[in-house]
Amino acid sequence: KHFPIKRTIGEILTRVPQRFVKAVDGVSFEIKKGETFGLVGESGSGKTTTGRLLLRLIEPTSGEIIFENVDITKLKKEELRKFRKNFQIIFQDPMAALNPYMKIGEAIKHGLEIHNIGSGRQERKKLVMQMLERVNLSPPEEFYYRYPHELSGGQRQRIVIARALVLRPKFVVADEAIAMLDVSVRSQLLQLLIELKRDFDLTFLFITHDLATTKYICNKIGVMYLGKLVEIGGFKDIYLEPLHPYTKALISAVPEPDPKKKKKKIIPKGEVPNPINPPSGCRFHPRCPFAKDICKVEEPKLIDYNGRKVACHLYK
Ligand code: SF4
């Protein structure tokens, strides 16, 4: 009443700094059907932005996102809406992802209604019950009429998984999906994701800051640093023989359960630079223990190297 909308917007615009961050730059990778591709990196590396771009939850300014030969960046609003059931996302915070005023069963059923799956109320309810059981929330009747706040964090995340998978998607982005849970619940949820991936024939993009978790679920790993992909390789290659100095540092920080095995720690210098003004040349150069003069001026390209991909001047 007291602040006309125009004035409020004007005020907000004048207060917001007019600077744009290229959160993801020149990132290109391929995920094969049935694969689990792990995208790892510190916070601010652009991995979450990449996951959201793939589902067009954020509009890319340029580039292509090809899914089953369709460039989804070209889809119009209505085509995209129909296409959406093919790909789903599981967010980090289940409490924020669920409507606190909606009963669990209704929240899962809502997606079925939007995408017109199931022939009526009863059939949709049956599909929801089956899905609740499949994510080990049993007996399902006990969960269907409850609200999110009546459940534990692990149970809420199972609901989010059920809501995504009841639509029978082909591609799922799990964005730090188990990061907020207690350690014991985390391993149960990881096991559940592995089983669901197998049973539902899913393809996964598994986004995490914790390289150790990728060991259990990922076939392939992509390592991101300040909005760039710096290395891509099979899980074993990355884990046993990392190429990029940043990947080496990440691997050396993973705790080694066997006390007899000694690991050489590689600790990058300083803090992660501000993504608003990334360093010239190789973005990792101010922190890299192997940096050469060329690294400060020339950006390394992501090149093929012995069947893997790496962006670093140490490899030609
Ligand atoms: Fe280090 Fe240079 Fe390789 Fe960058 S390009 S990771 S600075 S050696």
Write the layout of secondary structure elements.
Blueprint: H1 5-15, E1 36-40, H2 47-54, E2 66-67, E3 70-71, H3 77-83, E4 87-90, H4 94-97, H5 104-114, H6 121-134, H7 140-144, H8 153-165, E5 171-175, H9 183-199, E6 203-208, H10 211-217, E7 220-225, E8 228-234, H11 235-240, H12 245-252, H13 293-297, E9 303-305, E10 308-310
Parallel strand pairs: 1-6, 1-7, 4-5, 5-6
Antiparallel strand pairs: 2-3, 7-8, 8-10, 9-10
The structure holds iron/sulfur cluster (SF4).
Residues 244-245, 282, 284-285, 288, 290-292, 295, 300, 312-314 line the site of iron/sulfur cluster.
Task: Provide an overview of this structure.
- Residues 1-251 form the ABC transporter domain.
- GO terms for molecular function: ATP binding; ATP hydrolysis activity.
- Keywords: ATP-binding, Nucleotide-binding, Transport.
- There is one protein chain.
- With 316 residues, this protein is of the alpha/beta class.
- It has a domain at 240-316.
- Helix content is 37%, strand content 14%.
- It contains 13 helices and ten strands.
- It has helices spanning 5-15, 47-54, 77-83, 94-97, 104-114, 121-134, 140-144, 153-165, 183-199, 211-217, 235-240, 245-252, 293-297, and strands spanning 36-40, 66-67, 70-71, 87-90, 171-175, 203-208, 220-225, 228-234, 303-305, 308-310.
- The strands form two sheets. The protein has an eight-stranded mixed beta sheet, with helices on both faces. It has a two-stranded antiparallel sheet with strand order 2-3.
- Strand 7 and strand 8 (228-234) form a beta hairpin.
- Helix 5 packs across helix 6, helix 5 runs parallel beside helix 8 and helix 6 (121-134) packs across helix 8.
- Iron/sulfur cluster binds next to loops.
